[in-house]
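Researcher: Next sequence.
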Amino acid sequence: MARTIDLNCDMGESYGRWTLGADEAIMPFITSANIACGYHGGDPHVMRKTVALALKHKVAIGAHPGLPDLMGFGRRLMDVSPQEIKDYICYQTGALREFVRAAEDDLQHVKPHGILYNMAERDESLAQAIGEAAMESGRGLILMTLASGKYDGTCRKMGCRVASEGFADRAYNVDGTLVSRKLPGSLITDPARAAAQAMRMATEGKVLTLDGVEIDISIQTICCHGDTPGAEKIVRAVREALEKAGVAVRPLWEWLPPQ
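Model: Next structure:
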């Protein structure tokens, strides 16, 4: 079953003298870039540079806002209110949007980073806050959510323009959530295995969980994490496998229907 899919990756997560990821090697193979906005990673100089790199390769740009936790890379749980979440997302999305505007382009999407993404799955009030922040930022702005999850369902009911996301380089639980990074087997670092998982999600709507159970999953975009070991090889393998299977790999703005 040939179809269209978006391939996204977390980018621009370096800051100061600290470098993370292989952005220049990865960018030519993706269609959407989730650019860090300074809270979990990134800084103004990296943001501008990453926007320019994305535009050079005709890659759509999205904001990747996280919790204010540079030391923990936005992956540590924080006690935050829905209003704080809305303000964090508004602040970070606005910062990145200005760099995109200065480069004479538009922001395609927003995707919460790290633990914030997972918190939205567990707490409906936080999912609603993220959805409200996305809609306040622009009705046409696409919000990436965990495919087939509670966060996804909440934001769709709210009227958000949603792109359901699957992960090529992460293992799944039987409830469709991602296996905790603290557990063995949570990361998929073998490019062939990641490519096979991505292709099956895109063409069959299925994914095999860490426990060996096959579950249904409906996706519009596939993510590869920029900080996964060997990310550049994984992204290339995923792109090549999708295209070989007859899947058109294109940025969301070209084909995702408006809400």
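Model: The chain has one domain: 4-254. The longest strand covers residues 4-11.
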